[in-house]
């Protein structure tokens, strides 16, 4: 379990640039040739966790939980299976908001704009890793937990437009149109186009 110790505004945030530099520095804890992990230590927030490759599937959840390199939770194990099953050589788990919380109800009620801006820098970096970035919307109905989450997605969509990102979902959308969470998807589930801009018009 990870319960936030307090507001992320009270933290001395590691910028994404600093986190990326550290993530590219050899670590005694995991293989940096395999894993991209920023920050490269367990903390109250996480920008990126994934495997390195030339053609990653970028999965977007709501917020990070407890997963780390070589210690994936069931959600990330499903993400990895779906990525490989759809022809991608790697996966990157990204999130609408970077604060760690096992229970989304424990997320802070007010958006930390500095954390959000650093998270957007991380997203742009992830988008730059492939010629035609594929972004898998996978946040489920959890996006309703906080009012600021849909606005964070809007900023991500704008960033994606600059890199020619294509958006996808997997499994059935909810009655309200939310894209399916990765957990409990079939192992052979295929991703399919997702009109994220139309989706946001109703949020």
Describe this structure in words.
This protein is α/β, with parallel strands linked by helices and 203 residues long. Helix content is 28%, strand content 16%. It has five helices and seven strands; from the N terminus they run H-E-E-E-H-E-H-E-H-E-E-H. The protein has helices at residues 16-23, 74-85, 113-127, 148-162, 196-201, and strands spanning 35-38, 48-51, 56-61, 90-95, 134-137, 166-170, 191-193. Strands 1-2-4-3-5-6-7 form a seven-stranded mixed sheet, with helices on both faces. Helix 2 links the parallel strand 3 and strand 4 (90-95). Helix 3 (113-127) packs parallel to helix 4. The radius of gyration is 16 Å and the shape is globular.
Provide a brief overview of the structure.
By secondary structure, this protein is α/β, with parallel strands linked by helices. The longest helix is centred in the middle third of the chain and has 15 residues.
Q: SSE layout and pairings?
A:
Layout: H1 16-23, E1 35-38, E2 48-51, E3 56-61, H2 74-85, E4 90-95, H3 113-127, E5 134-137, H4 148-162, E6 166-170, E7 191-193, H5 196-201
Parallel strand pairs: 3-4, 3-5, 5-6
Antiparallel strand pairs: 1-2, 2-4, 6-7
Helix pairs in contact: 3-4
């Amino acid at each position: 379990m990870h319960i936030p110790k307090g507001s992320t505004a009270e933290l001395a945030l590691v910028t994404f640039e600093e986190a990326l530099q550290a993530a590219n520095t050899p670590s005694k804890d995991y293989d940096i040739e395999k894993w991209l992990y920023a920050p490269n230590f367990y903390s109250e927030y996480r920008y990126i966790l994934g495997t390195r490759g030339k053609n990653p599937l970028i999965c977007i959840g709501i917020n990070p939980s407890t997963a780390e390199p070589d210690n994936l939770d069931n959600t990330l194990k499903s993400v990895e299976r779906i990525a490989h099953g759809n022809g991608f050589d790697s996966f990157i788990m990204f999130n609408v908001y970077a604060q760690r919380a096992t229970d989304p109800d424990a997320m802070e009620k007010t958006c930390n704009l500095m954390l959000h801006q650093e998270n957007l820098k991380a997203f742009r970096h992830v988008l730059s890793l492939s010629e035609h970035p594929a972004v898998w919307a996978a946040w489920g109905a959890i996006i309703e937990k906080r009012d600021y989450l849909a606005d964070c997605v809007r900023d991500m969509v704008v960033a994606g437009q600059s890199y020619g990102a294509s958006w996808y979902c997997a499994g059935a959308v909810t009655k309200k149109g939310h894209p399916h969470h990765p957990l409990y998807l079939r192992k052979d589930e295929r991703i399919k186009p997702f009109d994220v801009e139309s989706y946001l018009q109703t949020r």
